[in-house]
Amino acid sequence: MTNTLIENNFRTNRLPHIWCSGCGHGIIMRAITKAVDELGYNKDDVCVVSGIGCSSRAPGYMDFNTFHTLHGRALAYATGVKMAKPELKVIVVTGDGDCAAIGGNHLIHSARRNIDITTIVFNNNIYGMTGGQYSPTTPTGDKGTTAPFGNIDKNFDLCKLVQGAGATYVARSTAYHVNMITQQVKTGLENKGFSFIEAVSICPTYYGRKNKKGDAVSMMNYLKTNAVNVKAADKLPKEKIQGKFLIGEFYKSQEPEYTEEYQKIIDSFQKER
Amino acid sequence: MSNQCEIRLSGSGGQGLILAGIILAEAALNDGNNAVQSQSYGPEARGGASKSEVIISDSDINYPKVRECDILLSLTQIACDKYIKSLKKNGVLIIDDSVNIPQRNDIQVYSLPILKTAIDKVGKPMVANIVALAAINAITKVTTNDSLQKAVLNRVPKGTEELNIKALTEGFNLV
Amino acid sequence: MKNKKIKLMQGNEACVEGALAAGMKFFAGYPITPSTEIAEISSLRLPRIGGKFIQMEDEIAGMAAVIGGSLAGLKSMTATSGPGFSLKQENLGYAVLAEVPCVVVNVQRGGPSTGLPTMPAQGDIMQAKWGTHGDHPVIALSPSSVRETFDLTVKAFNYAEKYRMPVILLTDEVIGHMREKIEIPDPDEIEIIDRLKPEKGLDEYKPYEIKEGQVAPEMAAYGEGYRFHVTGLIHDETGFPSNDSKVAGDLVNRLMKKIDDNIDDLTLYEEYKLDDADIAVISYGITARSAKSAVDMARAEGLKVGLFRPMIIWPFPEKQIAQLGKRVKNIITAEMNLGQYVLEVERVANKYTNITKCGKANGELITPDEILAKIKEVQ
To answer: Are C167 and C35 in contact (CB under 8 A)?
Structure first.
């Protein structure tokens, strides 16, 4: 089973990937691919778009139409692809720096349009590719190479941000909760609209080392013990969820989808003829 | 030597002077002439000083902007004060009668109740530009009346044709 | 109007008409004076022919979406002005390296910075050539009239598709906003070039492989069955990234050779009264109209003056300017900036002739009188 998933959906001649040992990104990449595979999509109809950063190297290994664009701009490029060919299943793979800092504007506006793009952010709380600088999701007080005395910025809750901006599917899971990623990506891909999945990753090389979080196994254990499913959170006493973070599906709704709305304008002229 | 006439239409933003320039240029094309229409504008969409320029020629027009004009229309005092110096000697000045007649004795001046005619006789202040065009044409014959009417009908919003024909007639009658 | 096809049209409107005639099916952009009419008219026209328009959240996104749309198979365009052109530069470089055809219109306005939004300039000439980082080829065209805006927009699309690269159309506030006579040619009179596509059903498609006799690689669209990879990293002919210095050198050289090997196809200019001229005025875009008037005025006074007007300004018409330098005693380069194109004229013709610049950057056109005064000064 595992082997067929890799053989059928990856460019095996491009492997092994460039990520560090212990990095969570490979797990997330595989989980996304598994979702596409399980949905039975034709690979020719899937387009994976990324920006710049560690996460954004993923499309190069995935055997779909792949598009490695500029830092922060993946969603803007993907919007062009989706507008031009709405029949494509468009997936954006991005990171916390890529989509929440330099690409923040594209993120909120893609959500606002509710354009049918499924975005998965590999959130490792750090700029990995450039060597460990703090990002918009680095928790306040944590260290990065550009926050040697601790980060004084407040960090984003990306799910709340994107939900507020108008996304119609918003969920979070982690590199530990790998089946949940697959399930959420499947739901996102089947949602006609902007879907956002925050996949919390781990970066033992930079974030972990800088902040004394231990090795990859301890960071995985952290994800395991600190993630609280949103369905259970209501029933738990406050002190039980203090300092922990929520995973699961936060929001789901049906709203008009952008390319379908545009097609209605085109169709209105065809009727006129 | 080519026969070239340079016209400057001035007033305040929102008086429809850019549209008037477009109509005049299109009328010139209807006559088989060449025309270039351009405009300068500030950041305001309404108010401020607005001008529209038209060059009409029986040959190619290279430099597209009006420098010294042969005909100047000014619907406001500010516009007249600003552009009066750019009117050539022996040029034609057409002003709304609310504007003071400037101190120049080397030009022909026509002071006409353009804005009042639009309001009182046609019933719509926004057709002042069309009243003015008709007056300009009656005085200068810069385009043929047929071509002007055709251009007006081609450019004004659907449903306002009758109103604009009335504005043209009242404009011609002013002279 | 006697002939129905003769119209009074704005330059920005003619740009859209040209783009539609060339096959534009996608426009993405952001409002900016004085280019906005191009977006407005595109939004009105495209859905009627099954095309798509989108107003993006910023200038950068407009350029990015255009590249995405082109890779998904549609002929794509964006339009902007100074500040927006600056913002688009990184993406413009992506289109060069990833070899994505698209047209970028820059209706130039006074700069630097926000500058003079409603006034013309030709201050982005060098930016068009060097604005994005790294060594890269550039094709830029500059029309002098409304009709030529139509024609050169068609050409911009054709070059973009033929050479698989972004093509820049540099107009200005006056060309963009002025209205003049235009006769729109019949569709069958217009030459249209489409990108070369790979055969269907190949066992292997290499998106950056140049085959014998081709000026640019064959280009499949996303969703056509070839699951290829596109990146802004240096890549080999498979499209996948490489850090190999030979691959890097070969790729950048191949990109440059698209221009160098086809320079005759990419040279377009008008000569006016140059045959017996002692003085040549070199001017492009809106300023060339003043230069033409100045030439006529000078000729009326018995001065032997002519005009050289490049319509493709990048690549620089080196051969022609060098020959011109050998033929005349003086060259005056007239442009609405403080000396940009003249630097290239000097590079090529300084050893043969005297070169003088005639320029200004105050939001006003250079007048025929100003150029005439320069002519008299040098003769």
So the answer is: no
* Contacting residues for B48 by C-beta, under 8 A, at least 6 apart: B12, B13, B41, B42
The 3-state DSSP composition of chain A as helix, strand, coil percent (nearest 5) reads: 45, 20, 35
The arithmetic mean of pLDDT across residues A16-21, rounded, is 96
CA distance linking residue C359 with residue A221, whole number of Å: 69
Mean pLDDT of A75-90: 98
ipTM: 0.97
Bridging pattern class, strands C166-172 and C102-110: parallel
Q: Does C94 touch chain A (CB under 8 A)?
A: yes
Fold classification of A2-272 is Rossmann fold (3.40.50)
Chains B and A touch (3+ CB pairs under 8 A): no
Interchain contact, B34 vs C181, CB within 8 Å: yes
Of B29, B34, B65, the CB nearest to C1: B29
Measured in angstroms, the CA of A24 and the nearest CA of chain C are apart by 22
Decide: A65 and A41 in contact? Cβ < 8 Å: no
In the block, residue with structure tokens 């994800």 = A223
> In 3-state terms, what secondary structure has residue B47?
strand
Q: Is C65 on the interface with A (CB under 8 A)?
A: yes
Q: Are C175 and C286 in contact (CB under 8 A)?
A: yes
Determine the average pLDDT of the residues in A56-67: 98
Domain B4-111+137-156 has CATH 1.20.210.10: no
Q: Which residue of C has its CA nearest to A87?
A: C223
Do A60 and A68 meet the contact criterion of CB atoms below 8 Å apart? yes
Selection from A5, A115, A128, A135 nearest residue A56 by Cα? A128
CATH of C270-378, one of 3.40.50.920, 2.60.60.30, 3.40.50.2300, 3.40.50.300: 3.40.50.920
- Separation in Å, CA of C105 to nearest CA in chain A: 18
Tell how far CA A127 is from the center of its chain: 15
Q: Any idea which fold C1-266 has? A: Rossmann fold (3.40.50)
- Say whether pLDDT at C74 is over 70: yes
Q: Can you tell me the mean pLDDT for C300-308?
A: 98
The one-character DSSP state at B125 is G
Rounded CA separation A92/A66 (Å): 10
